[in-house]
Amino acid sequence: MPDYVIPPPIQAAVPVVGGGSFPVRRIYCVGRNYAEHAREMGHDPDRELPFFFTKPADAVLTGGADMPYPSMTADLHHEMELVVALQSGGTDISEADAMRHVWGYAAGLDMTRRDLQGEAKKAGRPWDMAKGFDHSVPISDLVAAHGVAPGRIELRVNGVVRQSSDVAKLIWSVPETIAYLSKLVRLEAGDLVFTGTPEGVAAVQRGDLLEGTVDGVGSVRVRIV
Ligand code: MN
After folding, report:
1. Which of 60, 68, 83, 121 sits between 20 and 30 A of 21, alpha carbons compared?
2. pLDDT in tens, 134-158
3. Residue 3 is assigned to a structural domain of this protein
4. How far is the CA of 194 from the centre of ligand 1 (A)?
C-alpha cells in the first residue's frame, strides 16, 4: 500500500448485467460520427477525420440515478450514444484486431452544456467545462460483447422520440474508431469510448425523463432534477 497522504479517490465503475462491475479508467468521446448530426451542427461530414474529447471517469452516473441539472448553463442537451468498454488496449491497434479489445457495450448519454460549448467553439477554447462536468455521463449497465450486435439507437424524452437512428450509420465504425484513437493515445483496459450521437440533439429541462436504448445492448434511464 503506497504511503498516500490523503485517502485515495474511489474507483469509478459501471455495473455489469448479471453481476459485478467494470472499473472505468478513461472516457473518450468521438465528435460528429453520424452524418445527419454533423449537418445539424453546421458541418460537412464528408470532409472530416474523427476527433476526440474526454470526460472524467468519475462523471459516470449509474443505476438509473437522477441527474442534477448542472450549474452555469441554460441549454443542457442530450446526446444518445453507443458506448464501447475495453478489456485490453495498446497503441497502433489494427482495425482487424480492434474488436478483441472490446469487453462489452452500454447505452450512454453524453450530456452537454451546449451554450458553453458554443462559446468555447467561438473563442477557440477547450470543451472540458461544456462536456466534462459532474454527472455528465448517465450510462446503462454494461453487457458483455459476445454475441451482441448493437442496432437501432433511440432516445425518448417524456415518452416522445427525440433521437432515432442505427449504429450501422456510424461514419467511423467501432473498429475504425479504436484503431484511429490508439494512434493518438495508448488505450488500456477500463477505457470507455462514446461513439458519437445521431441527429436530434435538443435541450432538456428539470423533471424530464430520458430513456435511451441501443437494441441488443440495453437502456439508460435518467431523470433531470
Ligand atoms: Mn457526443
Report:
1. 68
2. 999 999 999 999 999 999 999 999 9
3. no
4. 7
**Region class of 41: left (phi > 0), else alpha (psi between -120 and 50), else beta:** alpha
Q: Would 2 be classed as within a structural domain?
A: no
Report yes or no: 171 and 45 within 8 Å, Cβ to Cβ: yes
What CATH number should be reported for the domain holding residue 166? 3.90.850.10
Please check whether residue 196 is in contact with residue 43, taking contact to mean a CB–CB distance below 8 angstroms.
no
User: How far is ligand 1, taken at its centre, from the CA of residue 110, in Å?
Assistant: 5
**Cβ proximity of 171 and 59 under 8 Å:** no
As given in the structure block, the three cell numbers for residue 130 are 461544456
Residue 1 lies in a domain: no
Residue 144 Cα to ligand 1 middle (Å): 22
pTM of the model: 0.97
How many domains does the chain contain in total? 1
5 is a domain residue: no
Output the average pLDDT for the chain: 96
Question: How much distance in Å is there from the Cα of 29 to the middle of ligand 1?
Answer: 6
- Give the domain range for residue 55: 13-223
Residue 141 DSSP class:
P
Cell of 109: 448519454
CA of 27 to the centre of ligand 1 (A): 11
